[in-house]
Amino acid sequence: MVNHKTIKQTFPVLDMSCTACAVRVGKLLSSQPGVSSADVNYASANVVIEYNPSQISPEKLREAVQSGGYDLVIETGEDTEIQLEEVRTKKFQRLKRQTISAIILSIPLVVIGMFFMDIPYANEIMCALSTPVVFWLGRRFFIDAWKQLRHRTANMNTLVALSTGIAWLFSLFNMVFPQFWLSHGIEPHVYFEASSVIISFILLGRLLEERAKGNTSSTIKNLMGLQPKNVTIVDESGVQTEVPIGRVRTGDVVMVKPGEKIAVDGVVMDGSSYVDESMLNGEPIPVLKERDAKVFAGTINQKGSFRFRAAKVGTDTVLAQIIRMIQDAQGSKAPVQKLVDKVAAIFVPVIISIALLAFVLWITLAPANGFTHGLLALVTVLIIACPCALGLATPTAIMVGIGKGAERGILIKDAESLEIAKKVNTIVLDKTGTITEGKPVVAEIVWLHDNDSPKSIFCALEHHSEHPLAEAVVNYFGNTSAVPLEHFESLTGKGVKGIIEKETWFAGNAALMLENGIILDPALKRQADEWTRQAMTVIWFADSKQTLAVTAITDKIKENSATAVVQLQHEGIEVWMLTGDTEAAARKVAAKAGIKHFKAGVLPHEKAGFVKQLQAQGKVVAMVGDGINDSAALAQADLSIAMGGGSDIAMDTAKTTIISSDLMKISEAIRLSRLTVQTIRQNLFWAFIYNIIGVPVAAGILFPFTGFLLSPMIAGAAMALSSVSVITNSLRLKTKKIK
Fold it and tell me: According to CATH, where is 2.70.150.10 located in the chain?
């Protein structure tokens, strides 16, 4: 029997130098049997592969990538990320040393080339200084270009190797055989300084690029740094032992001291403290944690101390899931990236063709100095062309945008969601748990003749009930001691009754009271009717003869729901509310929240149909919900947003999760989307414009009109700056306000 089930995994890719490399790796993997898709992100140096494990293994995937001159990290141990970070750090340090050395050797080259060309052995000195720069410090370009040639492909390193290699060889020929040119009436020139400076500029550009790319993924690094390396475990006899975090198991009792980071997810057993959960919800106010409260890995304990029982460890913690979600999102591709990938795939061959064409045209159209000018044009075209700027334009903006969202408590699952969020013009809000707290609370209790002496009996009845509304009453009474019951009975759909000291007591709806011949006090009845008109739920409390109290239960609207709705409406977004409640209850909540459009009496399976109706009207719809009954509507919507604290199914289905369950974050998410897409467009515009203008100028298109020929050294600087400028523009997103 054939297993058709595919899995999706993210693997780090090593040795990529530009976008053309990313395209090449993607093609190598996509061509393998059992691979459904392979999306390579040059900025994050990761590939997301969907494959059938019964047809191909990670080892075979690695072999396929290695056949193209690259490498794939397939190890998934706890230390893999640490080892990868060490590899990146060593690479950065090596690049830094090479760049500094190249610049030190290039400075005297430039000085001699500009001011001291007439000194004895000037050419020989320049040759001696440039050779180690080009062929030792810049050897990676030639090695990689050779690898690409063996596989009949080309990338950015091919352009660098061709341009600097040709410039150096041409200079060597002119130095050794100057008579060849002098006999043709041409003054031989050497370009040793150009080839060295080009290598220096490109190394400097790569160095700045690596540093900037590291900054774009700073959110991941910050989150990973939140988990402590060691944990204090308490055994059954109360002995405390410090162990590595990898040894913590579900069910272990963990001690948290003042100022410590919480290591794993769990539930507080004893003690209390305030915990900083800003890494989860983006809110700076610490949250009180007492017995039975949930605590999460990566959050920071304040001044108190407590013990908790580990519930989720390792990759199951909320922190681990958030990190995994952000990594997947930052590695995903926006739809606009497909165009860039197509351009990148043909970019290098096209540039080589343009460079050769410029060389031929110079020789043909300007016989006198055509060879020299043509060779310079060829070298300059190869140098100035920059596919990296195009390749970095989209992923760097996405990495920064998604990272910024995570810092604000907004988890975005993929790049496509960022693009869609910008277009949203209609938002559908589920009422319970989204607009409201989703938790019934007592709004008010009115006692007969203001006599609340039987409240301990009322509390005892509701304490034994399993109904959610009963919990609201018990919470309202707080520290009131419940008296012991001699008999308790739950009456489904009506309420409860119990016997205390041979007296029967009731708590429930009006039907229960009437059914047992209990008189409804007129004053309490008027109050109950008023609450019913206000869409509140009413609970009666009575003894065997008369009603003693009436209670109003409501689901409170979240403090900032109305403000959030106003914000969305100001941004031109139409807001709808869906609820299974009655028309009167829905109208009441909609009025309080400032919502103009609502639909009441909607069953769970009808929510997706309503979203489809709005889409049929040409609207781009975002659905916001927090429960299992919202999952179908979330899946149907153009953009799905799950409120944190809701069901796992809703959060799995949704493309965006608001961890704090704060409606204000929705408008933040939309503004973040708009800023990110705006940044992507700016990056792509400048990357395309740079190449469209730079390549023809490098080929010498301005020479017939102005006599201007671009220097290869300036071209090298421009190429290096183009990638850096794109990343820097993306990093500006970090400083922009979305609140």
Answer: 227-260+265-312
Q: pLDDT digits over 723-739, tens only?
A: 778 878 988 888 887 76
- Looking at the DSSP bridge assignments, the partners of residue 444 are 552
What backbone torsions phi and psi does residue 598 show, to the nearest 5 degrees? -150, 160
**Which tokens hold the place of 360?**
């031929």
Helix (H), strand (E) at residue 598: strand 597-599
Distance in angstroms (rounded) separating the CA atoms of residues 324 and 56: 23
> Considering 144, 252, 341, 430, which one is annotated as catalytic?
430
Per the structure block, which two tokens stand in for 493?
A: 């759909």
User: pLDDT per residue over 3-40, tens digit each?
Assistant: 457 888 888 888 887 767 888 888 889 989 989 888 88
Q: Give the amino acid at 91.
A: K
Please report, as a single letter, which amino acid is at residue 511. A
CA distance 391 to 683: 10
| 3-class state of residue 67 by DSSP | coil
Helix (H, G, I), strand (E, B) or coil at 110: helix
CA 329, CA 9: separation in Å to the nearest integer? Answer: 13
Position 727 scores a pLDDT of: 79
For residues 92 and 45, the answer to whether their CB atoms sit within 8 Å is: no
Which of 344, 505, 537, 524 lies closest to 447 in space, CA to CA?
524
> Which residues neighbour 221 within 8 Å (Cβ) at sequence distance 6 or greater?
none
pTM greater than 0.85: no
638 has catalytic annotation: no
β partners of residue 447: 549
Does the domain spanning 7-76 belong to CATH 3.30.70.100? yes
Token digits for 609? 């149909």
**Which burial class, exposed, middle or buried, applies to 3 when counting CB atoms under 10 A from its CB (0-12, 13-18, 19+)?**
exposed
Q: Does domain 413-436+558-667 have CATH number 3.20.20.150?
A: no
Partners of 656 in the β-ladder: 412, 641
pLDDT less than 50: residues of the chain = 1-3, 646-647
Strand-pairing partners, residue 386, are none
Concatenated DSSP letters of 451-476: --TTHHHHHHHHHH---HHHHHHHHH
Enter the CATH code of domain 439-556.
Answer: 3.40.1110.10
In a 3-state reduction of DSSP, which class is residue 578? Answer: strand
Retrieve residue 69's tokens.
């001159």
What's the CA gap between 56 and 69, in Å, rounded?
20
Q: What share of the chain is helix, strand, coil (3-state, %, to 5)?
A: 55, 20, 25
Q: 156-176 vs 19-30: helix axis angle to the nearest 10? A: 130
For CATH 3.40.1110.10, list the domain ranges present in the chain.
439-556
Distance CA 457, CA 441 (A): 19
Closest among 5, 11, 13, 50 to 32, alpha carbons compared = 50
Do you know the residue count of the chain? 739
